[in-house]
TrEMBL record:
GO cellular component term, pick one: cytosol
Name of the protein described by the UniProt record: aspartate kinase
GO molecular function, one term: ATP binding
Catalysed transformations (reactions): L-aspartate + ATP = 4-phospho-L-aspartate + ADP
Organism, as annotated: Marinobacter flavimaris
Keyword tags: ATP-binding, Kinase, Nucleotide-binding, Transferase
Length: 480
C-alpha cells in the first residue's frame, strides 16, 4: 500500500442518517470517477441506533444492553431486540427502493441480531448456574451489541454505493464469527493488506473487536480510536472527521449563527480541552496517535463541503495570543469532600479518585484547599449517588455535598493575554452571574468558570461577546 496518498475519513451518526448528503457532499462531491478512490471511510452507526443498542447517551434510558445487564428485567431485553429489528429494517426501507437490495440488507442485519439473541439466551442460561457470573461477561456483551450498529450502516452504505456504480468494499472489523482475537493494530494491518486503495473505496465499521477491548477504555468513543489507528497504520496523508456542524468559536444555537466564526486552524491541545468538556473534536487518546505520527486532522461540516473546515495539527500556535473558542458542559455535578483531618495528610485525593474510578465516573476539573477537595464530574445522578455513598464509607468523618453546576471554558492555543481574566470576570459580573469556582493553569490554554446551571447559556454569550466578537474580523478563515 502506497503511503501518504490517501485520506482516512470518519462520518458521524447524524451525517450517516442522511445518505444523499453523505454521497453528494463527502463521497462524490465534485470528483470525477477516477478521483473517488485513495480514501478510507470509517462510519458510525445511524443516529440513535447505539442509544437503542446500549442506553441513551444523555437520558440514560435503557437499551438492549442495559436491560440485559439488569437481572430484574428478565426477558425485557428480548422484546427490545425484536423492536430493534423493526427499527433497523425500517431504516433499510427508507434507504433502498429496490426490493432485492432491501431484502439483502434486511437479511444481513436480521442474521446478526438473531445470532446475538441466541448468544445472549445461551449466556443467560449458563449464568443461571452459580459457577458462572454474568458480570464477568457484560463488557463482551456490550461490545457485541455496539458492533451491530456500525455493521448495519457500513454494509448498507457499501451496498448502496455499489448499486450506484462505485467500487465500494465493506470492511467488517466487528469480529463477527472470527476465529481469533487480535491486537487492534494487527487486525487493521490484516484487514487493509487485502484492499487496493487505487480502485476500491473501503467502508469500514467504526467498531473493531480486538484484544485490548476498545469499550473498556473508550466506551462510546470507540469509533474515534478505530479511525485514528486506521490513519496511523495505513500512514494516511490526512485524517478528516465529517460532522453536522463546523468547529466554531461557540455553539451557534446559543450565541447566534451570525456571531460565531468557524475556526480555521487550531492544535491538538485545544482539541483535548474540548474533549475534556465532552465536546469531542477527537478523543484525546485517539488524537495522541495522530499527533505523534504528524498526521493532520481536519474537521469538516458535511452540509458545507466547499468549506475547508478546521485543520488541527500538533505544532500550530495562533499568530497572536487570543481566545479561540468558548465551550462548556451542563449537567455537571460538583462533589465536595470537606474533612478537617485532610490538612497535611497526603493520600486523600488518591482515595477519592479510587472511588470515582471504581464507578467509572469521569471528572473534568477539580479544586483543593487545606481541608476540601471538589471534583466536577460529568455523570448521571444515579452514579453520583453511588459515589457519594462510597465516599461516606471511605471518609466517615467528612461532610460530603453535591451540587449541579455548569462549567464554561475559554480555550485557545495561546491565551497569554494580559487582563483576560479581569475582562472575563467583569463580563460575567455585568450579567449578574456568580462564579462558584475558577481554574486557570500555567499552560495558558484554558480558563474554566464554574457557574450555576441556570446561568450556562448566559455565561457562554457573555464570554463570547467580550473575548471573541470584538476580534471576529481577525478570525477570517484562511484556507488551510
Amino acid at each position: 500500500m502506497t503511503s501518504q496518498l490517501h485520506t482516512v475519513e470518519k462520518i458521524g451518526g447524524t451525517s450517516m442518517s442522511n445518505y444523499e448528503a453523505v454521497r453528494d457532499n463527502i463521497i462524490i462531491g465534485n470528483r470525477k470517477k477516477d478521483n473517488l478512490y485513495q480514501r478510507i471511510f470509517v462510519v458510525s452507526a445511524y443516529g440513535g441506533v447505539t442509544n437503542e443498542l446500549l442506553e441513551h447517551k444523555k437520558t440514560g434510558e435503557p437499551g438492549v444492553y442495559a436491560l440485559f445487564a439488569d437481572a430484574e428485567s428478565d426477558w425485557a431485553w428480548g422484546d427490545d431486540l425484536t423492536k430493534l429489528v423493526k427499527f433497523l429494517t425500517d431504516i433499510n426501507g427508507e434507504l433502498f427502493e429496490d426490493p432485492m437490495l432491501k431484502q439483502q440488507a434486511d437479511q444481513f442485519i436480521t442474521d446478526r441480531i438473531e445470532g446475538v439473541r441466541g448468544c445472549l439466551i445461551d449466556l443467560q442460561r449458563l449464568c443461571s448456574y452459580g459457577q458462572f457470573q454474568l458480570e464477568e461477561h457484560l463488557l463482551t456483551v456490550r461490545e457485541m451489541l455496539a458492533g451491530i450498529g456500525e455493521a448495519h450502516s457500513a454494509f448498507n452504505t457499501a451496498l448502496k454505493l455499489q448499486q450506484e456504480g462505485i467500487n465500494a468494499r465493506f470492511v467488517d472489523l466487528t469480529g463477527w464469527r472470527d476465529n481469533e482475537l487480535l491486537p487492534l493494530d494487527e487486525k487493521l494491518k490484516q484487514a487493509f493488506d487485502a484492499v487496493d486503495l487505487t480502485r476500491e473505496l473501503p467502508i469500514v465499521t467504526g467498531y473493531a473487536q480486538c484484544k485490548e477491548g476498545l469499550m473498556r477504555t473508550f466506551d462510546r468513543g470507540y469509533s474515534e480510536m478505530t479511525f485514528s489507528r486506521v490513519a496511523v497504520i495505513t500512514e494516511a496523508r490526512e485524517a478528516i472527521i465529517h460532522k453536522e456542524y463546523h468547529l466554531s468559536s461557540a455553539d451557534p444555537n446559543i450565541v447566534g449563527a451570525d456571531k460565531v466564526v468557524p475556526l480555521g486552524r487550531t492544535n491538538y491541545d485545544v482539541a483535548d480541552q474540548l474533549a475534556n468538556l465532552g465536546m469531542e473534536a477527537i478523543h484525546p487518546r485517539a488524537g495522541k496517535g495522530m499527533r505523534q505520527n504528524e498526521i493532520p486532522l481536519r474537521v469538516m461540516n458535511t452540509f458545507e463541503p466547499e468549506h475547508t473546515g478546521t485543520l488541527i495539527t500538533g505544532d500550530y500556535v495562533s499568530e497572536k495570543p487570543q481566545v479561540e473558542i468558548i465551550a462548556g458542559a451542563k449537567g455537571v455535578f460538583a462533589v465536595e469532600v470537606f474533612d478537617q483531618d485532610m490538612q497535611g495528610e497526603p493520600g486523600s485525593d488518591r482515595r477519592i479518585l479510587d472511588v470515582l474510578s471504581r464507578f467509572k465516573v469521569r471528572f473534568m476539573s477539580k479544586d483543593t484547599n487545606a481541608n476540601t477537595i471538589t471534583h466536577y464530574v460529568g455523570s448521571t445522578l444515579k452514579h453520583v449517588k453511588r459515589v457519594v455513598k462510597a465516599l461516606k464509607e471511605e471518609f466517615p468523618n467528612a461532610e460530603i455535598n453535591t451540587r449541579k453546576v455548569a462549567v464554561v471554558s475559554a480555550i485557545g492555543s495561546d491565551m497569554k493575554v494580559p487582563g483576560i481574566l479581569a475582562r472575563s470576570v467583569k463580563a460575567l459580573a455585568d450579567e449578574e452571574i456568580s462564579i462558584l469556582a475558577l481554574h486557570q493553569c500555567m499552560r495558558q490554554v484554558d480558563i474554566q468558570f464554574v457557574v450555576d446551571e441556570d446561568d450556562y447559556e448566559k455565561a457562554i454569550v457573555a464570554l463570547h461577546g467580550v473575548l471573541i466578537e470584538p476580534h471576529n474580523h481577525e478570525y477570517a478563515i484562511v484556507a488551510a
